[in-house]
């Protein structure tokens, strides 16, 4: 290398500390900025956690209320039935009046059941269905197919197609 080339290499200016400070942020300012971002992210996480906790708590409260008051409408319908029964017990004027009152009360009760999808299971003449019927007795019958319900000892009930009480039945068998 010639002397001129060596002098050029030596005369190349290196950046001073002041020039570097104005061009790029210092490590301290970078650290401060990163800490601010970290604190903001931490606050965001805490806010999101609090929101999810509140949503979970509100949902649990709603479920608890739904369980607690699920039968409120049904109970309101049954209050009229209870009132009618109490009036029938107070009225001692005649058997016919009491019978008429009980008939009306039964109609009210049946109406309440219908309104809330409580249906009777009255399976006379049907095949025995162990999901809906409970055989209490088996009787030999010549003119019926085996496992046919020939009598109902106690009606069963469904609520929205779910059996809440099976029907107690008498079932036929081959003689």
Automatic annotation (TrEMBL):
<feature type="compositionally biased region" description="Low complexity">
    <location>
        <begin position="13"/>
        <end position="28"/>
    </location>
</feature>
<protein>
    <recommendedName>
        <fullName>Protein GrpE</fullName>
    </recommendedName>
</protein>
<keyword id="KW-0143">Chaperone</keyword>
<keyword id="KW-0963">Cytoplasm</keyword>
<feature type="coiled-coil region">
    <location>
        <begin position="31"/>
        <end position="58"/>
    </location>
</feature>
<comment type="similarity">
    <text>Belongs to the GrpE family.</text>
</comment>
<feature type="region of interest" description="Disordered">
    <location>
        <begin position="1"/>
        <end position="28"/>
    </location>
</feature>
<comment type="function">
    <text>Participates actively in the response to hyperosmotic and heat shock by preventing the aggregation of stress-denatured proteins, in association with DnaK and GrpE. It is the nucleotide exchange factor for DnaK and may function as a thermosensor. Unfolded proteins bind initially to DnaJ; upon interaction with the DnaJ-bound protein, DnaK hydrolyzes its bound ATP, resulting in the formation of a stable complex. GrpE releases ADP from DnaK; ATP binding to DnaK triggers the release of the substrate protein, thus completing the reaction cycle.</text>
</comment>
<dbReference type="Pfam" id="PF01025">
    <property type="entry name" value="GrpE"/>
</dbReference>
<feature type="compositionally biased region" description="Polar residues">
    <location>
        <begin position="1"/>
        <end position="12"/>
    </location>
</feature>
<comment type="subunit">
    <text>Homodimer.</text>
</comment>
<dbReference type="InterPro" id="IPR013805">
    <property type="entry name" value="GrpE_CC"/>
</dbReference>
<keyword id="KW-0175">Coiled coil</keyword>
<dbReference type="InterPro" id="IPR009012">
    <property type="entry name" value="GrpE_head"/>
</dbReference>
<keyword id="KW-0346">Stress response</keyword>
<dbReference type="InterPro" id="IPR000740">
    <property type="entry name" value="GrpE"/>
</dbReference>
